[in-house]
Design goal:
The complex is a heterodimer of chains A (193) and B (419). With 193 residues, chain A is an alpha/beta fold. Chain A has helices spanning 24-27, 55-58, 79-87, 99-107, 120-124, 175-183, 186-191; strands at 3-10, 64-67, 91-94, 112-118, 150-154, 159-162, 165-170. Chain A is 24% helix and 20% strand. In chain A, strands 1-2-3-4-7-6-5 form a seven-stranded mixed barrel. By secondary structure, chain B is α/β, with parallel strands linked by helices. Chain B contains 15 helices and 18 strands. In chain B, the strands form five sheets. Chain B has a five-stranded parallel beta sheet, with helices on both faces. The relative contact order of chain B is 0.14. The chains are: A alpha/beta (193), B alpha/beta (419). The structure holds iron/sulfur cluster. Iron/sulfur cluster (SF4) binds next to α10 of chain B.
């Protein structure tokens, strides 16, 4: 997939700043750990993250999620990656990732990308309803920095565009990440080794 | 240019051992011990069966299951998952440490499954505890582990290493956990994110294995891949005895290249405590002296060793925990439990009013021996106090000594106030 579009979720605090250190218990709480069926996982995504407890019911297929630093720190649970897939989220952009989370996502072929530069202002203004209700995408607790805007990810150029404007520049995937992603997952990838 | 410990271990296990394992490079490394616990284990089995139907694991003698999260299972889902693992282990001829053995990472050290310089992976995000014996341990998700079960190797990006110098000697009033919390508080989650750590200094050299385990266990909370400690003479002797043959330490080269440096000053250190919410929100215990405590949990992979609990016995012997306070003690392993039992410490805990549970993760993971309700204040000796992790209440993290003293006092306090 070299180019794809979707609504963008900015996972922000009340000041409109991307939230750092979102751990695996906030993404996918330990009370659901015994679940092994991927189809069941999506509904619990972010249900322990203040301000985003209803994320799963609002998320739509092709959504794109943007978060702060050290995303997915904490436990080794694969569910914290898989729950996004169940919902049809296509990719995650973060300032950085927890090490285990990064591996889990890479090995399962789920595109997680690292932000190099982000234009929060351009992302935060636009089609935002003042009460947050009509912003179908990222709704902050006060609705302020949320946007349900449509953006386009252009993988070749390592950019995300809103209209013509570049709103995120991201780092190229490493070779192993790219290879595993192209193969589908690490199991498929290893067959070609 | 010289290599750090992690670079040496990775190079020695690499598919291309002649190539230097430089940071940032992606290499395939052989894994000496592959494991799964009850948490994640069933998913590993599911992935394995899906991708490698009716095939064998790469090497059954290097593959293990360790149950520790929910032991014995108190939900049907966990019971089912454990049973799936048992079935798979039997079919594959893989050794399984069942619900009575204790915390997997500790069992691996106690059983001598991992020695200095070796590599191990598992579904436990604190498997980097193996850094305590100078081995490379890493927690991974269930697809990753299913893959390693089959391949016996996996890819790693060689991490950068941060050199951490601990300046000063640990004061008598402080414990390895205080040193650890001080480090976590100073470094936060960003300084070492995705990097390995190496610790140096006289206080580090003097740490016994239990103290090394405590420090290494919280690498995860610093976002670090692993905290590696050069094994001491004692650690080498211990590992060699378990192996029945001398083991060799992996030491960093004198001219090893570190990507960063940090200094932790422990001169005049006072007992440390981390405030509810994040492990790195650390302060001196004596700044919180009047906070009422409802519940105390002593155990976990960070502070559930024989040595940790023996120190607790020394504080609570002949005393009673505050009426109305719930206190629990959970040894990390069956071996530790047995030793405490034989030496009379278990009786000391019970006489003091503690609930003593069978070995395992106990209060840490699924709230198996009790969770906190809204408004309840807990002191825990574990490594994480994220909201909701151990219940609805507020959890502070501290040393076993501080936790024990607070249980006696009924408010946050240090061992000095009790003894
Ligand atoms: S004690 Fe807690 S942190 Fe340690 S392995 Fe068990 S669940 Fe994980």
């Amino acid at each position: 997939m070299t180019e794809y579009s979707g609504r963008i979720w900015l996972i922000v605090d009340e000041q409109g700043k991307l939230i750092d250190d979102i751990d695996t218990d906030m993404i996918y709480h330990n009370k659901y750990l015994a679940i092994t069926d991927r189809a069941q996982m999506g509904q619990y995504t972010f249900d322990n993250l203040e301000g985003y407890r209803d994320f799963a019911s609002k998320a739509q297929k092709d959504d794109i999620v943007v978060v702060g630093a050290n995303f997915g720190s904490g436990s080794s649970r694969q569910q914290a990656v898989d729950c996004f897939r169940t919902l049809g989220v296509t990719s995650i952009f973060a300032l950085s990732y927890g090490a285990i989370y990064k591996r889990n996502a890479i090995n399962s072929g789920f595109p997680i990308l690292e932000i190099e530069e982000i234009d929060m202002e351009a992302l935060a203004t636009g089609s935002v309803a003042t009460d947050g209700s009509a912003a179908t995408g990222g709704v902050a607790t006060d609705g302020s920095a949320a946007t349900g805007d449509e953006v386009t990810v252009i993988t070749e150029e390592s950019v995300v565009k809103k209209g013509e404007k570049v709103v995120i520049k991201f780092k190229q995937m490493s070779k192993v990440q790219k290879d595993i992603h192209n193969a589908g997952n690490i199991f498929e990838y290893a067959k070609g080794l | 240019m010289g290599l750090t410990i992690i670079e040496k271990i990775m190079q020695a296990h690499s598919d291309e051992p002649a190539e230097p394992a430089m940071p940032g490079k992606i290499i395939w490394i052989g894994i000496d011990v592959r494991s799964a616990r009850d948490f994640g284990g069933a998913n590993v089995v599911k992935n394995f069966r899906e991708h490698y139907p009716s095939q064998k694991v790469h090497d059954s003698s290097k593959t293990y299951f360790t149950f520790d999260c929910n032991v014995p299972a108190n939900t049907i889902a966990y019971a089912n998952n454990q049973h799936i693992c048992r079935g798979f282990a039997k079919e594959q001829g893989v050794k399984l440490y069942d619900v009575d053995a204790g915390i997997g990472s500790h069992v691996m050290i106690e059983e001598g499954l991992l020695a200095p310089g070796e590599t191990g992976v598992g579904t436990d995000s604190h498997l980097n505890i193996l850094g305590a014996v100078g081995a490379f341990g890493q927690g991974m998700g269930d697809q990753d582990i299913a893959f390693v079960f089959k391949a016996g190797k996996t890819w790693f990006e060689v991490p950068h290493t941060v050199r951490i110098d601990v300046d000063g000697d640990l004061p008598d009033t402080c414990t390895p956990k205080d040193l650890t919390l001080k480090t976590v508080g100073t470094l936060g989650t960003k300084t070492c994110l995705g990097k390995a750590q190496e610790f140096f200094g006289p206080a580090i050299d003097k740490l016994n294995l239990a103290g090394r385990i405590t420090l290494a266990s919280m690498a995860t909370e610093m976002g670090s891949i692993i905290a590696l400690l050069k094994p001491s003479e004692d650690v080498l002797r211990y590992c060699s005895e378990l192996r029945g043959a001398p083991v060799q330490p992996t030491e960093p080269d004198a001219d090893a290249a570190y990507s960063g440096n940090a200094t932790i000053d422990i001169n005049g250190l006072k007992p440390q405590i981390s405030l509810p919410g994040t492990p790195h929100g650390v302060t001196d215990v004596d700044t919180l002296a009047d906070i009422h405590v409802d519940s105390v949990f002593i155990g976990s992979c960070t502070n559930g060793t024989y040595e940790d609990l023996k120190a607790v016995a020394g504080i609570v012997k002949g005393r009673r925990i505050k009426p109305g306070l719930f206190g629990s003690v959970v040894p990390a392993t069956r071996k530790g439990y047995t030793r405490l039992l034989k030496e009379g410490h278990i009786e000391t805990f019970i006489d003091a009013g503690f609930l003593v549970s069978n070995p395992g993760c106990g209060g840490c993971a699924s709230g198996q021996i009790g969770m906190t309700g809204e408004g309840q204040v807990q002191i825990s000796t574990s490594n994480r106090n994220f909201a909701g992790k151990q219940g609805a209440g507020d959890t502070y993290l501290a040393s076993p000594e501080t936790a024990a003293a607070s249980a006696i006092l009924g408010h946050i306090g240090t061992a000095e106030e009790v003894l």
